[in-house]
TrEMBL record:
Family: Belongs to the phage and mitochondrial RNA polymerase family.
Major localization class: mitochondrion
Domain of life, per lineage: Eukaryota
InterPro entries associated with the record: DNA-dir_Rpol_C_phage-type, DNA-dir_Rpol_phage-type, DNA/RNA_pol_sf, PPR_rpt, RNA_POL_N_sf, RPOL_N, TPR-like_helical_dom_sf
Native organism taxonomy: Eukaryota, Metazoa, Chordata, Craniata, Vertebrata
Cellular component per GO, a single term: mitochondrial DNA-directed RNA polymerase complex
Major enzyme class: transferase
UniProt feature, compositional bias: Polar residues: 133-144
Name assigned to this protein: DNA-directed RNA polymerase
Designated gene of the protein: POLRMT
Gene3D superfamilies given in the database record: 1.10.287.280, 5' to 3' exonuclease, C-terminal subdomain, DNA-directed RNA polymerase, N-terminal domain, Tetratricopeptide repeat domain
Record localization: Mitochondrion
Source organism (scientific name): Astatotilapia calliptera
GO annotation terms (biological process): mitochondrial transcription
Function text: DNA-dependent RNA polymerase catalyzes the transcription of DNA into RNA using the four ribonucleoside triphosphates as substrates.
Transmembrane segments: none
Amino acid sequence: MSLLRVCAFAKLLSRRSVIEKCAVRVSFADCCQLCASVRGGTVRWISGTSLQLQNINVSSRIPKTDEAKKRALRQFQLLDVLEARIQQLQSDVVLDVQHAKVQFMKAPSHGRGTSSGKGHRSTPQEKTDIPKSGQTGDKGSFKSQPRRWIEKLTQEKKNKLKKQQHLQQKMQICVKEKLQTSSSKGTKSSLMSTGTTHKTISTGVKKTTAAAATAMELAEVEELEKRLNQQVSHWTLSSKPERMQEGSVGNACQDISLSICSYLEACIFVGDIERAHNFLLSQHRVMSRRKHLNTGVYNIMMRVWAKKGTLNQIGRMFILLEEAGLKPNRGSYFAALECMGRNPNCSPKTVRFCISRCLSQMEEDGLSVDDLFNQCVFRQDERDMLLKAIRIVKPEYQPRLNMHTSKCSSLLVQDFYSERADHIYPKLDFTQEDLQERFKRQLSVEQACTITIDSVEAAKPVTENMAKMRELLAEQRIQWQKILLQALRESKMILAKSNTRDYRLNLYPYLCLLEDKEYVDIMIQSVANLPPSGESLKILARDLGNRVFTKYCVRQKHQNQTVEKLGSIYNAYTDLLAKDTKVYDVLPREQWWKLEMEQSSGPTLQGGETSWPYIVTLELGTYMVDMMVKNLKINSDILNPAYDRKLIPILYHMYTFRSTRQVRGIIEPHPILTQMQQEAMETKLTFDSYVMPMLCPPVPWTSVKFGAYLLTPTKLMRTVDGATQHEELLEKCQNLHAIYDSLNQLGNCAWKINKPLLDIIISIFNDRGSDKLDIPPPLSEAPKIPHFNPQDHSYTASEKAHMKRQVINAKKKCSEMHSLRMDALYKLSIANHMRDEIFWFPHNMDFRGRTYPCPPYFNHLGSDVTRAILVFAEGKLLGPKGLDWLKIHLVNLTGLKKRSSLQGRLEYANTIMEDILDSADNPLNGRKWWMNADEPWQALACCMEIANAVRSPDPAQFISHFPVHQDGSCNGLQHYAALGRDVIGATSVNLMPCDVPQDVYSGVAQQVEELRARDAESGLKIAQVLEGFISRKVVKQTVMTVVYGVTRYGGRLQIEKRLKEIDEFPKEFVWDASHYLVRQVFNALKEMFTGTREIQDWLTESARLISKSGHTVQWVTPLGLPIIQPYHRTRNQVVKNNYIRYYMSALCSLSFHRRPDTVKQKNAFPPNFIHSLDSTHMMLTSLHCYSSGLTFVSVHDCFWTHALTVDTMNKVCREQFVALHSQPILQELSNFLLYKYCTGVLMCQRRGDVELQRHFGFLYSSKC
């Protein structure tokens, strides 16, 4: 670009408004014509494009009545007010209006008039409706209103005069300040050339002052118009003012901003730059919509223009930023510099000057060039272009990159990171070449986004009916694909024709992100996975939207050229993990960061995509659901030719009801479709790629938004749908290294399938299942649903009610059996697909910090069945004590000998060796001893491992892959006992040295029995009935869950369920007995754990006071993880759009502005706080086990390792528990709550602050 063109562009900017193409000036003469038209008794109406003042088309007609004349007079006064404002702002304000075709018609004397070509009869009571934008017509005249609004307008004028005087004073002060600083500072928008710079500087003060005044005046005008329109809406009978929920304004702004960003990104991704540009301008033109824009929104378009090298458009974006009152940030300057690096047409002198001006402006804003390279996200060759531009003025410049080597702030792990001399980081049992090949396989799976595997039911013989149903389904799916493809293309054509300059968001770009066939495949897959009982519309829509988003993210990474760089870094990363490479003294996270710094050129791997707000995902999914409901049909006689043929929908939008209110929408399949799918028993299952375990080690977590899968987007913290506050808190944390490293250690554990055990389970699954062994039976074993005619008068009312209950119970049972069967089918099919593979489970965590594997169906956190078929891929010698630990582990799985010592359990295992070996050799035809264990399948797997070990030449040299578990003794009570320093409670949960392991459940049962015996002696009937029925099993669940917030009501239900399972217990006493026992259990726990209840009460009361003050409860774990409870007040509401009406929770967008749910906040704080301590202890244990070279995984408070290293793991576990509770946990929590909720203006002015401060300060100082 030549210097002349740059100068010409600067002049153009000085003469034209930013909205020059879409706005015209409204002259005073035009206003007078409008006034004259009304004063002359004429009717004005607007057609075509409307006069966009608050986007309302005003249509009125004035009948010749006294009341009408009064109303006309009021309208004249209203127009006078607007006329004065227009005259005042005419010199420097360009309103956002379009040419309006105004027609004038005389009002007929007989009271009739026409509007939009239609006759209309007027009466004094008629009123004027305000049609929607784009509509025309006259629907009546104004209804009579009192004169109150005239007084309000008069007061408004007085207020405006005061504001103007105040504004003038401010402007005079502002001008003086500007004049004093104008000689030392330039304007931020001068990035183009010498001419542009001189032009801006010479008029900088004047234009800045005028722009500020104009912006404030525009805001006042829009506020005035808004108030007037609100008054008009009250006048019209049909208007219904919408009431915004408390806190919804902040949520709406946040959601709209994110929706705008995702919309612009989608438009740019599909190449529709014009739509994106016009949409941004339409948002910018109107002040009421401009408030939703931030600098990041403008930066999105800057990057587009930077790619094209259009420097004038970049300059225009900077001016838009200034008009919006926003400051350029790193992304803005980066785009400008990138554009200069790409522009070959500018003269070197001009480019050098522009770059120098840009760098100096950055320096004034407190930004450095290194900040651009360290904190900006690059795509494709953007980084290289930025570096090229910088080196034009700084030829020797070399970016200084931040290596993220800051020390961890938590005292618990400072030594772990600083003292590494004795650390032995384990290697994987794979060569580097093998790991690199596995990466390629995993990459191909994630690029496909879906994977189709064989079902374990494929082994069943194919019957004639099965073959027929499969053929029918295949034919129907081909037909449905054609129908959906046509419907999708037609709907896209309709959406594409919508006005691209319309400010409303449009789904069209979201429907162009993928190929049409991919959308259709997603919809067909959802139909195949729909359960017979249907699925919630919100859940189904969310899943559909998420599938589209996942595919979109994968394609974004291809477009941004990050896949190639990911492969390069991962191949180098395998050097750390492979067994045939040198030993490193760094952690996986540190090594990955180092490799990224070394290969810094090209795109950035982290944070390259914009996440979609929940409402966008839901809207897109709802659109697809609506398309399925409307277009997918089937012949009614497809299964029974006797019926008349007609096309019927295969999906129905139903509603569930509670009392008289609709609760939620349900998408339910037609029974014909359900019958076809069940009888077909298809041999293939299709899953999303993230459902499957990974074929290579996961990408280490290095930031909140990067880790786990190669391409599939994954959140570090699982949250409620629509919740954003967790992510915001995490992004503010500078140091989560210990959290990342713990998740990476858990994810790096390699697994394989126990094939002999899997084959046994599949054989039982394909037979008829087994309730005893937790193998769900097929639906053919489900109870038949009784049929009866409710209109049959031969039944009495009680008989009809009884039969209805039978039908409901039978349907519920069938639904539960189908869910359990499909869950088992998915798990077993995935396991069978991975039977010859080595695989990994990437991990993330919930909002409390508890860790979970990312694959949802098949993982080691599953049931007894899935745990039994998983073993470590790496084997280790049993060593001298490994076989003993296998035997002890087996006894633990049986549920026997709970109060025996470890030596006693080992001796018991040696006495039952015949049963162990028989179970291993003849699991289904022998004595079947293993079937009576608490965990039968894990017990059988352990029997097989013991049999193989004892039959080997030397058991100590036997290579074992079997994981041995060490479970916590009621872990929640352990933490409470440690926090409260309760010696008795600590002894009962094995925190104090004892000769034999203590069992808190048996201890509570024994104490309850003593209380019962005392009451029985005193003659209490229910205590006498309970004699001989109080056991460990009856009280275990209540004791286990009381520390997690279970109430007496919940505890009573738990005990009631256990009593009903006892056949000998008289059922008529179940109610009284459960009431009695839950009271005694709570009393026993209170005596055993004196500090537990006090700490619980303090935590509960703290949460109650916090939530009552309008805040959600937050705290920080000892490892520095911020936690916030996501419990807010919600209500179900109808959400309407152009596609379908659906019921959803108002919890679409959680933020800090939502009012908390006091009951949930206070009840959940104690258990969630203990869960956070539990997760902290697990993470500490995992880190130190990793530095000791151990294989370690966890199921919350149950830790797994090889039999060889159980003793080492136990030592680490105890040391870290002591280290954790050596910290002043409660005191630090109290200090945090005092700092968070009892300081600052907002809280100190509240009445309850004194109570809060007193409460938070009341701590058990001697116990901290």
